[in-house]
Write a structure and sequence with these properties.
The chain is mostly helical. It has one domain. It contains two helices and two strands. The model has no long low-confidence stretch (mean pLDDT 84).
Length: 54
């Protein structure tokens, strides 16, 4: 299998590592609020998850 040496290949490696190894969740660009600089659905999910832990 050929190696992708383009920027897209590096981006894919970084994303896969963050998701598979570090447990990050990948959002979608349509969920991102540029004005507040936050992915609202992931933020709300994280806050609700933390409230359940209390």
């Amino acid at each position: 299998m050929p190696t992708n040496t383009h920027e897209s290949g590096l981006e894919a490696l970084i994303i896969n590592h963050l998701i598979d190894i570090n447990g990050f969740e990948q959002g979608t660009s349509s969920d991102y609020n540029r004005e507040c600089a936050v992915d609202e659905p992931l933020l709300i999910f994280d806050v609700e998850d933390k409230e359940d832990m209390e």
